[in-house]
Ribose transport system permease protein
Amino acid sequence: MAVSAQPLPVTETAVPAGRDMPRSVSVLIFARDRGIFVLWALIIGVFSFWCAPYFATLDNAMLIANAAALTAIFAAGVGFGVMTGVLDLSLPGTAAFAACVTGWLMTHGQPVWLSLAAGLACGVLVGLANGLIALRGFNPIIVTIGSLSALSGLAAVIAGGYTFPGLRQLQFMGTERYFGVPAPVYIVAALFGVGTLFLTRTRDGIRLMAVGGNSEAVRRSGIHADRYRVLGFVLSGLCAALGGLVTTAVTTEATPEASPGIIFSALTAVALAGVALTGGRGSLPRVLVGALILATIANGLTIRGVQPYWATVVTGLLLLTSLGLERVIQRGVSNRLMSVANLSVHNRSV
């Protein structure tokens, strides 16, 4: 009996993998999933030549890694949320709130470990509150904007409108270097290592990604999708709190100011990494490289004596270009997979 030739879903799994995958599709998928690593290598090559001999040195590499650390932490928070299908805009407020809670406890004689634990707990609680409110049917973007405003106000209330200066007890995770490597770099390495293992090697991490891709399909399969949406908010809030604490450690003061530049830089890194804002697709290593690209561009232009605002211009143009290429590549992959899938069904029906 002939099989009706129905179009298969446009995914990489709709066609044979490995050697049977058409070469054109394999090239496009490589460009989509690994193109950001090639781009970073090209940027490093250009600046190594243009800024010789100052750019391609170990000391400068440490400067770039340290400069990228804070952006990377907040970008991880945005990435966790986006991969789950939500965009958390409350990160700057969460960071300021966690920092001020930690600063208040430390200036009132509490141990460093307890103060840090309380700051991280604030991030978890904020993420949990955002997630539970969003589950009531409210738009997550509106919810997190409201949280951003409320948390910024609470941080100012805790700090009395000022800052908590002189928090030198946190230098061990801010300005200290271990074996020549800045402390924030170790924190970023641990965060992205654990986060990548969680998303790719654990059942909950894989389900979290699946919820971002198609929450209704996950729900119909018997998985509690809402639980994983809340988990995405919690992980985002935890990363925001960690970013606020590392910022406090670097500057040795806790400030209630919720800088909008935090979310801009984090979103830029995530977008450069090709993480789908609709959820379900992305990887933390690419997000990390996105943050490193931003720091590399700023560092190279600074070495050449170019005004800092040009780094913003270059980054914006690079972002627009990458978004355009992402769209073209994804469309090419979908069209070719559709053609191959339909051809495969046709051959089986003959």
Observations:
- The radius of gyration is 22 Å.
